[in-house]
Amino acid sequence: MGPEKKEARLRAGYEDSYDEAVADFEAFRRQTCERLASQWSDPPGKAKPRPCPACGKAARVRKYGVERRIVTRFGEVSAKRNYHVCSCGHGFYPKDEELGFDEDNLSRDVLARVLDFVVSDTFEASRERLRLHHGIELSETKLRHLFERQSAPLADREKPCPVAPLPLTKANAHQPVVIECDGSMVRQTRGFGEVKLFGVQVLGETKRVFLAEAKDKDRFEAQLFESPGFEKLSKREVLWIGDGQPYNWGLKRRLCPQARELVDFYHVMEHAHQAAKALFGDGDACADLYARRVSRLLLSGEIETLFDELKACIPYQPRTKAGKKEEAVLRPLLKYLKGNRNRLDYKGFRERGWPMGSGAIESAHKWVIQKRMKQAGMCWSPRNAQRMATLRALRASVGIERFAEMLEQANRMAA
Ligand SMILES: [Zn+2]
């Protein structure tokens, strides 16, 4: 027998045995669904009246064997329950109440999967992936509806919102806590709007807790206050690193007044590079040298020298066509740096081995926010932007499995 023929025979053997295993498995799934169907159904035949949940009187069966289809990980289960109607007018299914079915008609594990999918990808992709991975058929409309309902506590200001605990423990009490913030623009119905992402991390540890704010600053602050472990922050060394926007520092003063402030080094250098380009022209070697000089003065703590040198350069800026001195570049840079004068201690931070920039939070922005919220053609209502950002931040903080549990908990609390 030639090698090709041999391979074909082996392959056929493999296919046969695998197909057989699949058939066995499918049969087992069907049996499981049938067993669940009988457990979740009222027994066939005459049924006695049941006490009405509204008034307590005996309510008779109005209709026998009404079907309810529950999607489980084994397939669809068809439960047949009796519908009772009371003389007071109240109608109910005793079996539904006994089993705690809700209007979503999904088993808990399927619901957890659905939520994981829709938070990870578009509704359309979620529908396809649920079918491929789990053989679960749910329409896009149904997925949207499930998402709306299950995440309602996050969209409703009055409802308690699940919050991830901050990673502060006794064991890491000697290490400083780093709070970083960065924003990125997400397309919304009213134009582009900023979604801010905050990361809280103990220096040297990988665990990070994220909080996102898209629309509702008050809600966001309240959420941070409510984070389990927040009260421990006041006793810790905290490094608050932001992009220089005043919002950051106002928030810091209210939430964590003792924290040390630092403007993200890379944001400052971005400004410096822009100024250098404007001074010397894009691609000019002097532009690079100039930016490097700024960087060196910042890192060596010679902040006053930097201010003096920037100021001295202002008269040498290139002239515009109108013949006026173009001062629109260096002055704003100087103003930006002076406005953040007490937030430029890169020398001190470096000496202590502390981070100088929010590069970590910038990359987190990509996978926590942008991956789901900045896909082609997406446009979010402010309310939904806040909701999705909160969901993504929560999931990134607590992990996929805990995420479903926390949402379930939030829904129970909100009910
Ligand atoms: Zn009644």
Detail the topology: elements first, then pairings:
Blueprint: H1 3-39, E1 50-51, E2 58-72, E3 75-85, E4 91-92, H2 94-99, H3 108-120, H4 123-134, H5 140-150, H6 152-155, E5 177-188, E6 191-202, E7 208-213, H7 217-226, E8 238-242, H8 246-255, E9 260-263, H9 265-280, H10 285-299, H11 303-313, H12 330-339, H13 346-351, H14 359-373, H15 382-398, H16 400-414
Parallel strand pairs: 5-8, 8-9
Antiparallel strand pairs: 1-2, 2-3, 3-4, 5-6, 6-7
Helix pairs in contact: 3-4, 3-5, 3-16, 4-5, 9-10, 11-12, 14-15, 15-16
The structure holds zinc ion.
Q: Would you kindly provide a written description of the structure presented here, covering whatever features stand out?
A:
- By secondary structure, the protein is an alpha+beta fold.
- It has 4 domains: 31-101, no CATH class; 108-150; 177-264 and 357-414, Nucleotidyltransferase, domain 5 (2-Layer Sandwich); 266-351, no CATH class.
- It contains 16 helices and 9 strands.
- The strands form 2 sheets. It has a 5-stranded mixed β-sheet with strand order 7-6-5-8-9, sandwiched between helices. A 4-stranded antiparallel β-sheet has the order 1-2-3-4.
- Strand 1 and strand 2 (58-72) form a beta hairpin.
- The N and C termini lie far apart (70 Å).
- The relative contact order is 0.10.
- Bound molecules: zinc ion (ZN).
